Every structure is written in structure tokens, then in C-alpha cells.
Amino acid sequence: MSVKYNICKTMMGDKEGTCINIVHEGSMMSIPMNHNNRHYQQYIEDLKIHGMSIVAINDIGDGVPDESMWQYLNNAEELLVNKYGSDQDKLTALREDRYVRAMEAKTPYESMTVAGSVIDNTPQIIKDKYRHLPMRR
Hints:
Number of domains: 1
């Protein structure tokens, strides 16, 4: 696959945000994180097909899970700890977001092969908080 995506930090006035860039054959285009945007829809579809390996990141912005999907990278917790230290609120929010998405079989966790390790490695306190979610098989 020659298309890659780069998630980066952006500043909007005095507020930090996140953007997604499509990198294709040496050119780059920024796409909005908007479900109605066709390029964003292609990004989600590419994630379903190719997984998170097509995504690179240079900054996690404010560290809050968002529609860029940075939080589903294998090194998301490491990125969070490197930027914010051991901020337990941010780590818990990240783990909760991943667990709920895995339990609901949403991108990038449609496959139980990928979701299984997320579900298995989630702390019990988070599993208990979301016990109302149907068990995934």
C-alpha cells in the first residue's frame, strides 16, 4: 500500500488539536476528522483493511482519545506516558476507550484476533465499570 497517514499536532489559536495527513507518492494533504468527509471515510476504510500499521504519529496532542484514532496504535500508552508522565486519568481514559471499542467490535477491533489482547489486558476495574456491555465471542 502506498498511502500512509500521519497524525500530527496542530494549533488552532491558543488551542492544541490533532490533524490527519494523507501521505501519497510524496505529496501530503490534510483531512478533517469529520465522519461526513469522504477522505476521512477512506481513512477509516483503509484502517479496516490494513490495520494501524499504515499510521504514523509525531505528537498525541492533548492526549485525549479522538477521531484520529491515535489511541489504537500499539505504542499509544508509551506515547501518553512519554508526554504526560504517569497521568492516571489520561491512561485510564485511553484504556477505557480501547476496551469499549474492542467490546463493541468497532474499527480497528472488528477482528477478535486483534481485539482479544486488548480485552484480556484491560484492568479488571475497567471491565467491571463496563460490565453492561455484551460479552464478545
